Description:
Number of strands: 17
Strand content: 15-25%
Order of helices and strands: EHEHHEHEHEEEEEHEEEEEHEEHEHHH
Amino acid sequence: MLAAVTTISFDIAGLELYLPWLVGARVEMMSRETAADGAQLAARLASSGATVLQATPATWRLLLEAGWGGDRRLRALCGGEALPRELAGALLPLVGELWNLYGPTETTVWSTAGRVEAGAAITIGRPIANTQVYVVDANGEPAPVGVPGELLIGGAGVAIGYHRRPELTAERFIADRFGGHAGARLYRTGDLARWREDGRLEHLGRLDHQVKIRGFRIELGEIEAVLASHEAVRQCVVVAREAAPGDSRLVAYVVYRSGGEPTVSELRRDLRRHVPDYMVPSVFVALEGIPLLANGKIDRGALPDPFRNAKRADAQAEPPAPGMEQVLAAIWCDLLKLDRVGAQDNFFELGGHSLLALRAASALERKTGWRMDPRAMFFQSLRQVAAGHPGNDARRSG
């Protein structure tokens, strides 16, 4: 039995919907609320007798943080983002099998699969049936074993192209000159990979500035273009940085024009008018200038890491009151990598996102027994969220 937890708009939902039918198995659809709550999901996995679960690393983390004890009958499929070694290490003792899956939407769900073994390197494995994979150098020639190059994918899963984007289709979908049948094409993934001696593929990241955050493929240049259009922004760079292993977040580095610096809230509101929430940076860092290399290109390696010794810019923020406010504040600081938060701060304005809100709610329940609705953090201040605790008689509205 396969437990389906993926939203229908995500291409990997296709595996959950069709694979059980093809092999005569059963599929149990989980609600969005269940899939987003580690404790509920763990309970449903146990009651349903699920033997297969496909999920992103973020969902597997939700289960672990909810205290899920695992099931040795379960075949765990992980994909959508890179599988961190520490997450794999935590999952392996709890499941029967752990598989790392890889594949861009343009080649239809998954293209490669690799079983993860204790103590072994984590790879994306080998091509699945009816799929061909090549690693090529800058000249489009096959790269030797162990040498990084761009990953190309061919076979039955390759899409026709992009809807009404002929130029991009011509750029990314190219003729297969490595032995495919007449008219066969390859998809240029833009991913960096290399073959290992054992015949498995190792994924090394992106060749360009596209990144994957919580399963969403994001073009950083698109965010930069919108942010740069703000009247107060002179220059900006957006990158993905790890706040913790396996927890990548978008960080915007901004140089402001003289004469007025907008608040982070204003910048976020402006961005949300043009891009989805998952493309709005979690952190904004003000700089005097963008560091450059000798050739004039941006020196991304010299950009400061906002998650090291993170400090609040507003040292005058009203401190949380003793009790539930301080408990909440400690959880927020831990998740957001801040040294302090104020009573009037909002979780999302500090750089949180929906998955972190779920983690905050789970942590709060473990500490206090209070099962808070994580949606309370979307628009309320820390003080307002704390006032919702059943034992809070003050019911502050500040």
